[in-house]
């Protein structure tokens, strides 16, 4: 199969018929073999009834329904497990992502050998209250991860099938799938300018709180990607540095007291700061030690992402 299209959705009954028709038109025009996997993330409208009706008319349309709302990450992860196309396309169900972009994304994966191609909505039809925080979020993500994408959270993306079968998306980590994939060894990541369309039906499912949650998720994914199998490298380094600074402060104060006969050492703010930094250093080191013990006893401690094997 050429393409699997994974569509997470929540309360999109009005847009689904038009979206399915549009996708089928594009697929048939390009002679692609395909499947559409619509993942209903606990919709309270008639989205699931629409999916069932459309699947009876078109065998390529398949559906997964959650009993309640789990979030976009869970929907994508379930869709990734079910898909089988050599290229996996993800897109939103609100008609703001254009299916006409699919052939170009597919071509970049197949002919230019990208692992991931992310859409870049260079011209957006969103209010400033959404576009400005998005620019700040994307700039911060580029700085912290080294992945040069302008629109990390764009729902329209293309993946090699090996990528989606090698990663797990959980929590709210769908924003950082390229970061997760890079940590798994898929480093050939590109982007394509795509059309962003104004919303026709319904309302956006995201509020400003996603930017706060997104930053916390970014810290989590950076830590997990770099230090999940070696937490002592982070906590031990920070703990040693903090302990050493505290030790130097207290050594300086001790010399001032014992050699220079300075008085009032125990009442100086520097004295309490030195003790605090020393204690923090010990706590960080112990945290790293305990995290290392947990990591070494984890069931997946020796599970790694293997690319290819020869003669085995």
Question: Can you describe what's shown?
Answer:
The model has no long low-confidence stretch (mean pLDDT 86). This protein folds into two domains: 225 residues, Spore Coat Polysaccharide Biosynthesis Protein SpsA, Chain A (Alpha-Beta Complex), CATH 3.90.550; 66 residues. Helix 5 runs parallel beside helix 8. Helix 2 links the parallel strand 2 and strand 3. It starts with a strand and ends in a 16-residue tail after the last helix. It contains ten helices and seven strands. It has a seven-stranded mixed beta sheet, sandwiched between helices. By secondary structure, it is an alpha/beta fold. It is elongated. Helices cover 49% and strands 12% of the residues.
Write the layout of secondary structure elements.
Elements: E1 3-9, H1 16-29, E2 34-40, H2 47-57, E3 61-65, H3 72-82, E4 87-90, H4 102-111, E5 116-120, H5 128-145, E6 157-160, H6 161-166, H7 177-183, E7 189-193, H8 209-227, H9 231-258, H10 269-296
Parallel strand pairs: 1-2, 1-4, 2-3, 5-7
Antiparallel strand pairs: 4-6, 5-6
Helix pairs in contact: 5-8, 9-10
């Amino acid at each position: 199969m050429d393409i699997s299209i994974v569509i997470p959705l929540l309360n999109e009954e009005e847009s689904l018929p038009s979206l399915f028709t549009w996708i089928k038109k594009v697929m048939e025009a390009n002679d692609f073999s395909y499947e559409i996997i619509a993942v209903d993330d606990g919709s309270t409208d008639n989205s699931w009834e629409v999916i069932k009706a459309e699947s009876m008319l078109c065998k390529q349309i398949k559906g997964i329904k959650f009993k309640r709302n789990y979030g976009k990450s869970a929907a994508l992860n379930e869709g990734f497990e079910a898909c089988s196309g050599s290229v996996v396309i993800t897109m939103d169900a609100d008609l703001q992502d254009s299916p006409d972009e699919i052939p170009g994304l597919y071509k970049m994966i197949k002919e230019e050998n990208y692992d991931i191609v992310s859409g870049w909505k260079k011209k957006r039809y969103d209010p400033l209250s959404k576009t400005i925080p998005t620019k700040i979020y994307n700039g911060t993500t580029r700085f912290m991860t080294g992945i040069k994408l302008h629109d990390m959270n764009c729902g329209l993306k293309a993946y090699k099938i090996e990528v989606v079968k090698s990663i797990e998306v959980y929590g709210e980590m769908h924003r950082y799938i390229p970061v997760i994939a890079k940590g798994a060894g898929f480093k050939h990541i590109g982007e394509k300018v795509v059309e962003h369309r104004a919303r026709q039906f319904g309302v956006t499912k995201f509020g400003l709180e996603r930017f706060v949650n997104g930053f916390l998720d970014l810290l989590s994914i950076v830590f997990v990607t770099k230090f999940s199998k070696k937490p002592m490298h982070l906590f031990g380094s920070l703990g040693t540095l903090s302990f050493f600074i505290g030790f130097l402060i207290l050594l300086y104060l001790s010399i001032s007291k014992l050699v220079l006969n300075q008085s009032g050492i125990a009442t100086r703010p520097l004295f309490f700061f030195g003790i605090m930094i020393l204690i923090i250093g010990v706590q960080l080191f112990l945290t790293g030690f305990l995290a290392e013990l947990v990591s070494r006893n984890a069931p997946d401690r020796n599970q790694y992402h293997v690319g290819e094997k020869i003669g085995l």
